[in-house]
């Protein structure tokens, strides 16, 4: 049935396009180029919506970055707004907010690096030691779930567990006649709470890539290790972990490249008045000052600063990762 | 490999036990939310600690689903997850297919154009200005068009199309089909399992739309579910008060706001849990595809 349908599609186009490329009349470079483009015109049609998308939503915004050097007003638009040079950058770097944002961003990122990064590795090692495949799959099915839940839902679940008035933890404290604890709007707990949330959401999902690395280990290596009298921990240490080493190193380096990206939704949702000083990061600040308060130029300058630092770090990290990947091949 | 010492047994016991704790810690908050949403109001106020309700009730759900704003937010989210997903598949698929044909002129240039967007993201405000200049603020399209696809999805799908042999395409060409015909009648049906997998991921992404709505949607009637949910969940100490402010959910005295909140969380979670088995079937592949190719 399918063949029937294909025959019906535009028979007039048959063959003509194919031949044009192989024995095109014009042998010149441009002639051949034109013939090739004409031959593949429908491929360009297929690619067109995507191309338009990338131009409008990925490249036009880049041209809008010039407003970082202007005093943008919607009335004059990007072309007509007056130029102010680096004024917005100077204002931002001399602002105390800058140091607060930098501190919060780095603190949250480093906590995530120390606690969140190793979590999936440990979980993958633990899962790998489970003998019953049914049990293993059941646990896997459970821990993958949160990856697909939105941050709003996770905020909801967090609220339900930890809020002072309605949270389960505090209800339990109350039923034991203990004092309730304010967990969600306490600056001392905020960073820990974020890290815990991230681990809860992504630890299971993160194991996938490590489990794949473990699956690639030659079983003979384990047998040889057993012969040599290695127990479980020794096998883990000398066989499984080295097998994961490349993946771990590459992920770690790439993670370092995105150290300024703390994620907007999680922090914005968890933020409340008492914790603002430890919660505000670049992304939330840009949103609040830019979109909410309408200081387009100033917040664009902040965004631009973050993007440039981001590019430098990602490029460096990629280069490191590639070098590491190459060396480890030998 | 079969040492049966007590050490091995103890290790397994501890390991399995710890994993059980991890699994329970994952599922418990979800479980607790579900049972609270079904708890009778009287019981909710009288008992402090509820792990299993004595009386089950659907009051919270009935109340929610009779609320116009809640229903409209669900329809916005359903629209995103269906129409948005279809459009995303078409745009991503078309572009990925074109880029997977090695004979295509300017293929390299287009690839670079896609790849560069990995590297440099200009930030929120420049994108906001584009969406505003297109007149999309408060339009449901502001939640679809700017997130139609991404370099990541194009690359993943291109990797998939790369593996389809060119001979298939050539056979169809001889039968008189053009590239669009080949794509539509041969390539897409062949890649159905992959399309389903991509579609599920797109759909989950659209269903979870939050940040774009925060930026682009001020009109409550156009809110997707996640934004409404956030506004319902916000407690008085929270200053992340969502869009526009002035939002007040009509509170019925008979149904505590807490069980209402939980019912809303459950309703927002149900579609994810429904597609989860399918997601799980596909995502191991999806997560790995990109790392294998090129």
Automatic annotation (TrEMBL), chain A:
GO terms for biological process: transmembrane transport. It holds the Pfam family BPD_transp_1. This is Binding-protein-dependent transport systems inner membrane component. The keyword Membrane applies. It comes from the Bacteria. InterPro entries: MetI-like, MetI-like_sf. It is found in: Cell membrane; Membrane. Belongs to the binding-protein-dependent transport system permease family. GO terms for cellular component: plasma membrane. It is a multi-pass membrane protein. PANTHER family: POLYGALACTURONAN_RHAMNOGALACTURONAN TRANSPORT SYSTEM PERMEASE PROTEIN YTEP, PROTEIN LPLB. The chain crosses the membrane at residues 42-60, 106-130, 142-162, 203-222, 243-260, 296-317. Its main location: membrane. Keywords: Membrane, Transmembrane, Transmembrane helix, Transport. Residues 102-317 form the ABC transmembrane type-1 domain. SUPFAM superfamilies: MetI-like (SSF161098). The keyword Chaperone does not apply. Residues 1-24 are annotated as: Disordered.
UniProtKB/TrEMBL annotation, chain B:
It is a multi-pass membrane protein. The keyword Translocase does not apply. The keyword Membrane applies. It is found in: Cell membrane. Keywords: Cell membrane, Membrane, Transmembrane, Transmembrane helix, Transport. The chain crosses the membrane at residues 12-32, 74-99, 111-131, 143-161, 182-207, 262-279. InterPro entries: MetI-like (IPR000515), MetI-like_sf (IPR035906). Residues 74-279 form the ABC transmembrane type-1 domain. Belongs to the binding-protein-dependent transport system permease family. This is Aldouronate transport system permease protein. It comes from Paenibacillus lactis. The lineage of its organism: Bacteria, Bacillati, Bacillota, Bacilli, Bacillales.
């Amino acid at each position: 049935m399918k063949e029937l349908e294909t025959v019906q599609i535009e028979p007039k186009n048959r063959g003509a396009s194919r031949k044009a490329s192989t024995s095109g009349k014009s042998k010149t470079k441009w002639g051949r180029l034109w013939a090739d483009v004409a031959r593949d015109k429908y491929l360009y049609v297929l690619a067109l919506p995507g191309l338009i998308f990338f131009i409008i939503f990925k490249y036009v915004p880049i041209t809008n970055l010039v407003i970082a050097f202007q005093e943008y007003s919607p009335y004059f638009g990007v072309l007509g707004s007056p130029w102010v040079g680096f004024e917005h950058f100077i204002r931002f770097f001399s602002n105390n907010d800058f140091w607060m944002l930098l501190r919060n961003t780095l603190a949250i990122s480093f906590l995530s690096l120390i606690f969140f990064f190793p979590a999936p590795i440990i979980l993958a090692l633990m899962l790998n030691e489970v003998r019953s495949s049914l049990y293993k799959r059941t646990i896997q099915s459970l821990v993958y779930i949160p990856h697909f839940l939105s941050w709003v839902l996770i905020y909801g679940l967090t609220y339900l567990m930890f809020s002072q008035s309605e949270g389960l933890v505090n209800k339990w404290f109350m039923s034991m006649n203990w004092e309730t604890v304010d967990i969600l709007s306490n600056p001392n707990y905020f960073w820990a709470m974020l890290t815990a949330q991230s681990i809860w959401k992504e630890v299971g999902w993160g194991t996938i890539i490590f489990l794949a690395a473990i699956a690639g280990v030659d079983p003979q290596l384990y047998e040889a290790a057993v012969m040599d009298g290695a127990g479980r921990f020794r096998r883990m240490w000398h066989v499984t972990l080295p097998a994961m080493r490349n993946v771990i190193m590459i992920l770690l380096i790439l993670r370092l490249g995105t150290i300024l990206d703390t994620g907007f939704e999680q922090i914005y949702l968890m933020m409340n008045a008492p914790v603002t000083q430890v919660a505000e990061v670049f992304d939330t600040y840009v949103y609040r000052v830019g979109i909410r308060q309408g200081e387009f130029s100033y917040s664009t300058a902040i965004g631009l600063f973050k993007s440039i630092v981001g590019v430098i770090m990602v490029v460096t990290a990629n280069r490191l990762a590639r070098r590491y990947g190459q060396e480890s091949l030998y | 490999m079969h040492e049966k010492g007590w050490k091995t047994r103890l290790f397994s016991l501890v390991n399995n036990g710890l994993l059980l704790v991890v699994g329970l810690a994952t599922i418990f908050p979800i479980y607790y939310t579900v049972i609270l949403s079904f708890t009778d109001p009287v019981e909710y106020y009288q008992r402090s600690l509820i792990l299993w309700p004595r009386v089950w009730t659907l009051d919270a759900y009935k109340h929610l689903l009779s609320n116009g704003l809640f229903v409209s937010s669900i329809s916005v989210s359903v629209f995103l997850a269906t129409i948005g997903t279809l459009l995303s598949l078409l745009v991503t698929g078309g572009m990925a297919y074109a880029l997977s044909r090695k004979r295509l002129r300017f293929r390299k240039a287009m690839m670079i154009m896609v790849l560069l967007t990995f590297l440099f993201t200009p930030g929120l405000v420049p994108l906001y200005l584009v969406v505003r200049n297109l007149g999309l603020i408060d339009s449901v399209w502001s939640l679809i068009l700017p997130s139609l696809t991404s370099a990541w999805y194009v690359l993943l799908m291109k990797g998939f199309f790369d593996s389809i042999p060119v001979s298939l395409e050539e056979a169809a060409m001889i039968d008189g089909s053009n590239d669009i015909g080949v794509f539509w009648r041969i390539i897409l049906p062949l890649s159905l399992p992959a399309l389903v997998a991509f579609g599920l991921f797109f759909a989950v992404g659209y269903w979870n739309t939050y940040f774009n709505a925060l930026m682009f949607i001020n009109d409550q009637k156009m809110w997707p579910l996640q934004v409404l949910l956030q506004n319902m969940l916000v407690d008085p100490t929270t200053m992340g008060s969502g869009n526009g402010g002035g939002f007040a959910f009509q509170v019925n005295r008979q149904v505590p706001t807490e069980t209402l909140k939980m019912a809303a969380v459950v309703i927002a979670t149900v579609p994810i849990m429904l597609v989860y088995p399918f997601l799980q079937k596909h995502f191991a592949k999806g997560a790995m595809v990109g790392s294998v190719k090129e």
